[in-house]
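dude i think i finally got it to work??
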Amino acid sequence: MSEAFSFRLLAQDGAARRGEISTPRGNIRTPAFMPVGTAATVKAMHPGRVAATGADVVLANTYHLMLRPGPERVARLGGLHRLMNWPGPILTDSGGFQVMSLARLRKLTEEGVAFQSHIDGSRHMLTPERSMEIQHLLGADIQMQFDECVRLPCSDDEARRAMELSLRWAARSKAAFARAPGRALFGIVQGGASKPLRVESARALVSMGFEGHALGGLAVGEPQAVMLDMIETAEPELPRDKPRYLMGVGTPDDLIEAVARGIDMFDCVMPTRAGRHGLAYSRFGKINLRNARHAEDVAPIDPASDNAATNSWSRAYLHHLVKAGEILGMMLLTEVNLAYYQALMAGARAAVAQGRFADYRAEVKEGWARGEGAA
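look at this
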């Protein structure tokens, strides 16, 4: 733990990295998966249980918290950490993606985005400066530049327009960033599925001097091969001594493949959303607890897991809870999934430290291929 924000690269095995981000609120072991707490809560999870899965940091959402309860109110209540009773680091995204994907009647200009709330129709203007102000009021430890995210596939002309606008917004975000001890601002590499645009964006952001860098505009419908190609394109342009964050990704396989290509940080709603819909992630692959085959299965999801939700409740009971629509089923399966994602990252960190990441990657994939009946 440090009074300043810093990143140490502790080990490297091929492109895969093991490191540690230090912040005044605690250290983040990398590779790290950040549970998504969109509206200041990881859905169906008590904060203490989130920490118990092994999470060092959570993500919260600027757009949603701007609309409800409002950043000024959060600040008056002592900040986001106090409000949600999460003492560790929090990363906030900038709100740009949600403005594009959720808001009705939006108008994009050089200044920012004017939009209508998806909640009550109220009108708002989000700019790089306002995004920085909101994230400061929330008290986020890691803040993201305001950017424009375009869906793939898109034309190179559209990708260039959005990338160049995002670079101008990056400069404005950096100028407006309210520096405070231990807080950091990350730039976001854009460029669609164009290799030249990704390189151009990465180089421009590196020259601006951000504390870390993210890859944005991926996991938006493109094939995994395209995402991995963009990682391989941008990674050589990013400094070794700063963290790399792949935004909004993804499946366990996405995470393992991205770690193999030098990514340090991830977030995704997939494990929590899947848990609320009866799907468990495990070292045996995906397990659909809605299936009748589990109705009389007394085995837990994984008896070898350290997590109580994973090793204590039978698949039969989880199947019953899911079929009955019981809230406890959503809670337990959400924890199962977050615990698995954290175990996957812990295994990756250990494998990189031991110089055996390629073997770990192969072992993990072999377990998924064997299927849920394996023990």
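The chain has a mean pLDDT of 96.
im so relieved honestly
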